[in-house]
């Protein structure tokens, strides 16, 4: 399919999206009610009951009477109390417990620091810590050599320790929506890292060149910060497929951006770009490019005439009214909330684009009146 240009007012898109979600939920509710009353649903329930009986090894004679299914839950309960089934359930529960013991979960504003007992659990493979008041990551994190996933979003973390570079097996690092202002060069030693999310920290202006060593990274999200240009280290991430650098202070793109040969998605909206380089046409795998069209005065014709199937989306973003508030922290928090909402919206919008069977090859600006 040829090049696609979709231009919308961002607030209108959001309104339309919310309306679409409401209508979809209402249709799903009505369809669910219809199915519950239909014979088809009864057949489905009986079939699922038969499958459950077979899984538990219940003889047909117990649930089939004169050719009809006796979907009595007591049959399952009675058989579930037999020693064989109880043993099977016990083994399953034990397996789940074995898996869970390698995952650490922590949330809630009552937490201002990591519990002391954590340092004894160096066998952990995943940390999931969110919505706490924790500000620092302990240096003993270097002991967690089996750590694969480090999810630390929506906390109060203000810096990453240099010891993070000791996590050679780390694959996912998410420190979005914290209070980071910089990233240590040692992060470049996490040679197996595949996903890096630094979005929503609001103050990061650059990344250390040492991150060029992250050759396995496929996803980088540095949106909602203060980058003036795409970091050089990012341009050297040869396997990068997704780059979100929206809501920053970009004024231009590097002329050698086409060195990102594996890049498929590039999100640039809410920056200060006035033109797009022709080099974007030389990126064979680029399938989605999102910008804000307010300041753009130059777009290469080759992008609009691309035959590679590139979707080019230009969002017309309405100015956001700034509410003067004596408490600066409240203003920052509201900005974070807005960025987070817009991030979730864009994710849903992009997923919707991917699911569409067909879209217009060219769409002009849509003028609509919509009361939000």
TrEMBL record:
Pfam families associated with the record: LRR_8
InterPro entries referenced in this protein's UniProt entry, alphabetically: Leu-rich_rpt, Leu-rich_rpt_typical-subtyp, LRR_dom_sf, LRR_domain-containing
Gene Ontology cellular-component terms listed: cytoplasm
Entries under SMART domains matching the protein: LRR_BAC (SM00364), LRR_TYP (SM00369)
Alphabetical UniProt keywords: Leucine-rich repeat, Repeat
PROSITE patterns: LRR
Domain of life: Eukaryota
Gene3D superfamilies assigned to the protein according to its UniProt record, in alphabetical order: Ribonuclease Inhibitor
Name assigned to this protein: Leucine-rich repeat-containing protein 2
